[in-house]
Specification:
D-Maltodextrin-Binding Protein, domain 2; 6-stranded mixed β-sheet; about 300 residues; alpha/beta; transcription; single chain; Arc Repressor Mutant, subunit A; LysR family transcriptional regulator; WH-like_DNA-bd_sf
Length: about 300
């Protein structure tokens, strides 16, 4: 095991940096020692892990597999250490979370602040990535859990809690539409709009609405960044179209109005808190999970639905 862990540390450093010399400087070991470890494993496997190029080293297909496996191995080792510390009565460990962009403000930072005040021994890493990448990160064991849209079609993910999230019009609070709880999609006809673009999940729902209703949107601005859309609405550029979770913080503070789009063809989206079914969360991850699960209902609109664990 020590020999393998040494090789893996060397290999992953070279894989990230693309250079044995740079890895040697970072790890404070000789370049020849790193090269020898990699050559020995390549000989054992019978295939190269790197392409040797004039500009540096690049992972081969076999190297990519080894890199992914190495990441999982390091994460599992970290979990084992955390569980051993649990036996000693220490609330320590590291928890990795993947979330969609909408949760980068307000709700989740507040949860992290609360956790850090009560469990200073637990460190947290938060990855803000695209919806499909959150699912993949959970399935591949890159994170302990994640929050993402539409978990229904993905086997191997246990849904710990979920709420319904709806699509709506985002306006300044004094805008006429902002005074309404609901409005038809056709209400935006003739208005300057700030419209989400791919890969944002809501862009697909908007495309369906356009196709079925025949409403032609005046796309004054399009953006693939939720915060940019929110900022543009706050600046008075136009009306935005986002989900209730995207503007959870701004609506709660009275900075923006949210008017649900009431067309019957539009179904709510499911926002889920999920873990990999095949993996038992570490003690530290269980603490963070429980904290988020307890408060998850507040993310729904209106009156969230929360569930006990089930496999998606």
């Amino acid at each position: 095991m020590p020999a393998f862990s040494r090789f893996l540390r060397y290999f992953m450093a070279v894989g990230r940096l693309g250079s044995i010399r740079k890895a040697a400087d970072v790890l404070n070991v000789s370049a020849s020692a790193i090269d020898r470890q990699i050559l020995n494993v390549e000989a054992d496997l019978g295939m190269p892990l790197f392409e040797r190029l004039p500009t540096g080293l690049r992972l081969t297909a076999a190297g990519e597999i080894m890199m992914a496996a190495g990441g999982r191995w390091q994460k599992n080792l970290s979990d084992v250490r955390a569980q051993i510390e649990d036996l000693r009565g220490l609330k320590r460990g590291h928890v990795d979370i993947a979330v969609i962009d909408a949760l980068a403000k307000g709700y989740l930072p507040g949860i992290v602040r609360s956790l850090q005040s009560r469990y200073p021994g637990i460190t947290i890493g938060v990855r803000v990535i695209e919806n499909d990448k959150v699912r993949a990160a959970i399935m591949n064991g890159e994170v302990d859990f994640g929050i993402f849209f539409e978990p229904q079609s993905y086997r191997g993910i246990t849904v710990r809690a979920f709420v319904e999230v709806v699509l709506g019009l985002i306006t300044p609070p004094d805008h006429p539409l902002g005074q309404q709880k609901e409005a038809r999609f056709s209400a935006v006809t003739g208005s300057a709009l700030i419209v989400p673009a791919e890969p944002l999940a809501v862009s697909q729902q908007i495309a369906v609405l356009e196709g079925i209703t025949g409403v032609v949107l005046d796309r004054t601005v399009t953006s693939d960044n939720i915060q940019m859309i929110v900022s543009l609405v706050l600046e008075g550029v136009g009306i935005g179209i986002l989900t209730s979770i995207d503007v959870f913080t701004e609506v709660k503070r009275g900075l923006l109005g949210f008017t649900r789009i009431s067309d019957s063809i539009l179904r709510p989206m499911t926002l889920a808190l999920g873990t990999a079914t095949a993996r038992t969360p570490s003690y530290a991850a269980s603490i963070v999970l429980a904290e988020i699960e307890n408060d998850f209902a507040q993310l729904g609109y209106p009156g969230a639905i929360q569930t006990t664990a089930s496999e998606a």
